Amino acid sequence: MANLADSFLADLDELSDNEGYPEEDNAEEAGREEDDDDMPDLESLNYDELDSVSKLQKTQRYNDIMQKVEDALQKGTDFSNQGFILEEDPEYQLIVDCNALSVDIENEIIIIHNFIRDNYLVQRGKILLDFLPATSQFRVGYLEQTEVFQSTPPALRTRACRLIAAKSTLAARIDSIRGDPTGKAGRNLLEEIRKKIEKWQEPPPAKLPKPLPVPDSEPKKKRGGRRLRKMKERYAQTDMMKLANRMQFGIPEESSLGDGLGEGYGMLGQAGSGKLRVSAGQNKLAAKVAKKFKEKSYGSSGATSGLTSSLAFTPVQGIELSNPQAQGNLLGGGTQSTYFSETGTFSKIRRTQ
Fold first, then answer.
1. How do residues 223-263 score in pLDDT, each as one tens digit?
2. GO biological process: what's one of them (predicted)?
3. Please, what is the Cα angle at 221 between 242 and 234, to 5 degrees?
4. How many other C-beta atoms are found inside a 10 Å radius of the C-beta of residue 253?
5. Which of residues 41 and 236 earns the better pLDDT score?
């Protein structure tokens, strides 16, 4: 029985010990709730001022931990307290508090980032929107305040500003020399400006309907002239070039160097082209050049060519040194060989009866 009673007492002691732990747990949870109360809620923040968001540096807990850290850095590490329990060491407790504080600092950084994003990003977009060309206003100084400029549509205000500036310069020059005391010239310039602005606002003339061409009519002669026709004939593509620029499907073309190297010949000389020989077209330009070359006379200047030799082979003496111009000098040269020749005689004399 004594053993049974001792066991009951031991169970009661264990129950009493377990009842103490929930109190400590509740105390820790209460401390955590107090710490959570120090940190602002992300959803219930007032984004009007930064001080309402950033509160960690102003809390007493932050100041106490930072003061303990500074004292520990100045004091240094004490190695004489190595026999104490780790949980009871003040440096250990300070490290735990610093870790918890670092988590709170990271949370506050996120809160400040959201504050900047929600407040300044929208303002930045509005500021950049003012710099866009579509929304930027055209500033021209005093000319913008005139009645003519204000009555002009926004799309034409740039042109109107240039026109008003030019006419204002002319009016200022007239006033500088006092050329028009009555102001008639200025009124004429103003009326001219208004008429031009009204002219700009008129719709463009409507396009007239283009009539259809008469069916089965003769084709119109396109303008070109003789010079253009000559140029087209000169640079026209021949049949040979057309075949060289054309290739058959699935058949490799021949090339100048073979194996696809060099200049390709296309369909020239291929069996599948259907033509034995490329017909040469009539080239008017080549015919004209040949005719002009034929009609042109090339007279000799008396100089012999480089292939002419002064040695002649004769059956009497063999190799004989001859003069190529000796035959021409027999009857005289130039006009003497015909009418005024000294050696020539009349071949026929008509006698008068």
1. 778 888 888 888 888 888 888 888 888 787 888 777 778 88
2. spliceosomal tri-snRNP complex assembly
3. 35
4. 16
5. 236
d(CA 227, CA 97): 100
Separation in Å, CA 225 to CA 71, 135, 199, 232, 237: 105, 55, 42, 11, 20
- Taking a C-beta distance cutoff of 8 angstroms, is the pair 148, 198 a contact? no
Neighbours of 306 (CB within 10 A): 6
- CA pair distance 256, 265, nearest whole angstrom: 8
| Band of pLDDT at residue 287, cut at 50, 70 and 90 | confident
The three-state DSSP-derived secondary structure of 284-350 is HHHHHHHHHHHHCCCCCCCCCCCCCCCEEEECCCEEEECCCCHHHHCCCCHHHHCCCCCCCCCCCCC
Mark which of 179, 201, 223 sits at the end of a domain.
Answer: 201
Q: Is there a single domain that holds both residue 165 and residue 125? A: no
DSSP state of 144: G
For residues 183 and 180, what is the distance between their CA atoms, to the nearest angstrom?
A: 6
Residues 222 and 211 sit within 8 Å (Cβ to Cβ): no
Instruction: Enter the tokens of residue 199.
Output: 């002219």
* Contact indicator for 158, 164 with CB cutoff of 8 Å: no
Each residue's pLDDT tens digit, 6-30: 665 666 566 555 444 444 445 445 4
Distant-in-sequence, close-in-space partners of 12: CB < 8 Å, separation ≥ 6: none
**Total domain count for the chain?**
2
Q: Is 47 in contact with 41 (CB distance < 8 Å)? A: no
Q: Find the domain containing 106 and state its range.
A: 46-136
Computed over every residue of the chain, the mean pLDDT equals 74
**pLDDT tens, position by position, 176-220:** 998 888 989 999 999 999 999 999 999 988 888 888 888 877 777
List b or e across 270-289, with b for residues whose CB sees 16 or more CB atoms inside 10 angstroms. beeeeeeebeeeeeeeeeee
pLDDT value at residue 162: 92
Answer with the one of 106, 136, 166 that is the final residue of a domain.
136
pTM of the model: 0.29
